[in-house]
Amino acid sequence: xxxxxxxxxxxxxxxxxxxxxxxxxxxxxxxxxxxxxxxxxxxxxxxxxxxxxxxxxxxxxxxxxxxxxxxxxxxxxxxxxxxxxxxxxxxxxxxxxxxxxxxxxx
Length: 106
Prior knowledge:
Number of domains: 1
Largest sheet: none
């Protein structure tokens, strides 16, 4: 559970805002079929991180008009902050509902 959330935050930080989806996907594929709780956490983290990774990627593409840097950095910060908050909630045994997220994967 924690790998999906904290790994998403770490992926956003280390990947410049575009790799936050990687750890939740790995958690989903590795343990998603074994536990409905792990699957719920991994899917929530994956959906959130996918959205903000795409937004960060668009921001990096738009750096040629300067506003893209702000968009990418904001998306990166949102992915990191909410990934950490979700990891702390998961550590307490709660399923965290990410704000500003969509359901790409169910």
